[in-house]
Amino acid sequence: MPEGDTIYRAAERVGAALTGRRLSGVSGSAPPIRATSSQLTGARVKRVRSAGKHLLIETDANLVIRTHLRMSGVWDVYAKGARWRHPIGAARVVLEHDETTVVCFSAPDVSVDSPVSIQLEINHLGPDLCADRFDRDEAVRRMEAPHKATIAEHIADQRVMAGIGNVYKSEILFLERIHPEAPASLTETEIERVVDRSRQLLMLNRSRPKRITTGETRRGAELWVYGRGNQPCRRCRTKIDTAWIGDLERITYWCPNCQPSIPTGHIDRK
């Protein structure tokens, strides 16, 4: 699933193509787009921005297009008439002006509504880790009130901090030497370090074309633990462990040596 930094970069690309332009054509398979295409056609795009994992396109028609890409979606920008990289049948949102076509493919979550209604849809989000203005105190406060059993689930909860997904979840906990199955209730110092590390990583990567958390740009060296199950830890050479933690079917990666075991209940491994 694209995480906060990826959506931030997508918003910048889409914004560069659309901001200030009037839409000459609006189409796509998403029902909210079909229902509002006549209202959006001719509207001027005022701003494109990210909010955690949501991308928002604000128009002067008093309508905002909101997408959440989930696991499958992607935003592409094309010169008018250029060949698309994905099938036309996967085009959920198509926005056109004289020079450019912007397409959102395969996003399962699309809505179009007034600015007030769209804001209500995203009001649950915690402080956005990729925002220029980040409310650190609020992020710490939300970290102190866990809704989940394990720290792996807690830091990926968008109500706590918006933007962390499965990759950053594993990478942040590795860098802070916290076992992912540890209880969500951390010490004050641990909470502050997790918040600061989360902000640091997403801000470092929001302008990079490719995520790098190790500082290495060599192919295959960009990540510490994510996607490296049974491979040697880059710090200590211990084999990276994996588990499916929490209700969502998403795998977590960690180093058993760098992130020592903690006395939690058994968590099924698949």
Summarize the structure.
The protein has 270 residues and is α+β, with helices and mostly antiparallel strands.
Topology:
Layout: H1 4-18, E1 25-27, H2 31-40, E2 45-51, E3 54-59, E4 64-68, E5 74-79, E6 91-96, E7 100-105, E8 109-113, H3 115-122, H4 136-143, H5 151-155, H6 166-175, H7 188-205, E9 241-244, E10 251-254
Antiparallel strand pairs: 1-6, 2-3, 3-4, 4-8, 5-7, 6-7, 9-10
Explained architecture:
This protein has 270 residues and is α+β, with helices and mostly antiparallel strands. It folds into 2 domains: 4-122, Alpha-Beta Barrel (N-terminal domain of MutM-like DNA repair proteins), CATH 3.20.190; 136-254, Orthogonal Bundle (Helicase, Ruva Protein, domain 3). 27% of the residues lie in helices and 19% in strands. It contains 7 helices and 10 strands. The protein has helices spanning 4-18, 31-40, 115-122, 136-143, 151-155, 166-175, 188-205; strands at residues 25-27, 45-51, 54-59, 64-68, 74-79, 91-96, 100-105, 109-113, 241-244, 251-254. A 4-stranded antiparallel sheet has the order 1-6-7-5. A hairpin with a 3-residue loop joins β6 and β7. α4 crosses α7 and α6 packs across α7 (188-205). It is elongated, with a radius of gyration of 20 Å. 43% of the residues are buried. The model is unreliable at 263-270 (pLDDT under 50).
